Here is the input.
Amino acid sequence: MRILVTRRWPDAVERALSERFDVVLNESDTPLSQTELGEAMGAFDVLAPTVSDRIDTEVIAGGDRCKLIANYGVGFDHIDIAAASAKGIAVTNTPGVLTDATADLALTLILMAARRAGEGERELRAGEWSGWRPTHLIGSALKDKVLGVVGFGRIGQATAQRAHHGFGMKIAYFARGPKDEAAALDAEFCPSLPDLLAKSDFVSLHVPGGDDTANLIDTKALSAMKPGSYLINTARGGVVDHDALAQALKSGHLAGAGLDVYPQEPQVPEALLGLENVVLLPHLGSATAETREAMGMRALANIEAFAKGEPLPDPVQ
Here is the structure.
């Protein structure tokens, strides 16, 4: 069984794959073109892409050999699931293993935005710091502030746990319905997104990408946010209207934002690049050695199950 791994994976995972299967690795780690991805559909039994690959209808139509798309990552909005299903191609992802790493990064962004850490480091590195003074880079404390969690799945809950137990934040959340896990956090369920946004000092996004959540945080939603609040996104870039966010940051309606994901990575919305009150990270949510290896091993488990004709551990359709 032939497998194409579209980007470099951790060494231990590449070795494990190569020991079991006929694997082609992307040694240069250069993103493949849409044409190359389409050709791979006719040359390999398994395509193992990442979020940096756009597996659209044209790619999927490129050939008939591939019967499994084993995605390296939990998000799969870069894959046309309907087109894959129509051709009888299974799609899997790697859920669960990146919960802690992503929640840690969400707290990193909350702290950086609240304490203006990005601004401070840029000032210091530019040689512009004139020394300590009482009014310099005043930020916000976290204790007793309300963290509004949009989407209360594994990562949203892990973020809330860290914020509540580690920093004394109050938790509110918006989800399809109340969650039993909220009781341990004394978390308040908000049945509507505007209600959550209006009462939150910090809003952290933890919803999947896709049509249902595209531009969920748009001009109207941003206007509903509490003046002086902060927006954090470690979910998917398409969840936020970044032009509207830039306006909210420029006007001072929002005190700050922290983003790890963008709609057309690696491009970052131009409107945000010149703003001091937004922290911009290069999609580091799962970037710990432990997590990235675990993601690869989870993808490998799906490939092995497919090779044996066994039920797939992590099907997405």
